[in-house]
Design a protein that fits this description.
Elements (H helix, E strand, L loop, with lengths): L8 H21 L6 H8 L3 H7 L3 H21 L7 H18 L1 H12 L6 H24 L8 H17 L1 H8 L4 H17 L3
Helix pairs in contact: 1-2, 1-4, 1-6, 4-5, 5-8, 5-10, 6-8
């Protein structure tokens, strides 16, 4: 939407409605399985009205991914080299778990993009994410070298945190079916803390 004037209240409301609807549609169907018509219907707008704000399905998806990326990277950015190593890692695990609890649609959107080969994110994965991971791997390796946490492969450590926390969002239907009436997040925090504390405590 190219405009010189600041957007009006109605324009802001419609953009927000489009992005909220698109998040539902994309997280359920993936990029390829979603259409502009589906998003317009979910947003309660006509297709021409939607296209006034976003010229294409790709533009909507790119906007969502751009908003999501900062949310997704923030928990890792908060890992503090000056903090207590064990507590920093455990806090990171809990932040990632909370992210899955609070933003399940966003997690599925991200997962769908990765499964499709990350065509709209590959540059970011190779630059911003890689730079951040390399920075935190250096921190983890320093803690291991100093004997503050047990030695393990630092990147696989991060991968395991991502998989063990995001699983609760990406496989929500399966998890909840197996947990029956028990909220899966109620026991997940204690389980993951115990798991990582045992794994990372130096011998």
């Amino acid at each position: 939407m190219a405009q010189d004037r600041a957007p009006t209240r109605i324009q802001k409301k419609n953009r927000a409605a489009i992005l909220e609807a698109a998040l539902d549609v994309f997280s359920a169907n993936g990029f390829r399985g979603s259409t502009v018509d589906q998003i317009a219907n979910a947003a309660g707008l006509s297709k021409p009205n939607l296209l006034y704000y976003f010229p294409s399905k790709e533009a909507i998806f790119t906007e969502l991914l751009s908003q999501l990326l900062d949310t997704w990277l923030d928990p890792l950015r908060e890992l503090d080299a000056a903090g207590d190593p064990m507590e920093e890692i455990l806090a990171y695990v809990q932040r990632k778990l909370q992210l899955s609890r609070d933003f399940p649609r966003e997690s599925r959107l991200y997962a769908n993009e990765i499964v499709q080969g990350a065509p709209r994110m590959i540059e970011v994965l190779s630059t911003d994410l890689r730079t951040l991971v390399d920075e935190k791997v250096t921190v983890l390796e320093t803690w291991m070298r100093e004997g503050k946490i047990a030695r393990t492969h630092p990147k696989h450590l991060l991968f395991s945190v991502w998989s063990l926390t995001q699983h609760y969002a990406d496989f929500d239907v399966q998890v909840r079916a197996l947990m029956a009436d028990e909220d899966p997040f109620d026991g997940a925090a204690d389980f993951l803390e115990g798991l990582y504390r045992r794994m990372l405590t130096p011998l």
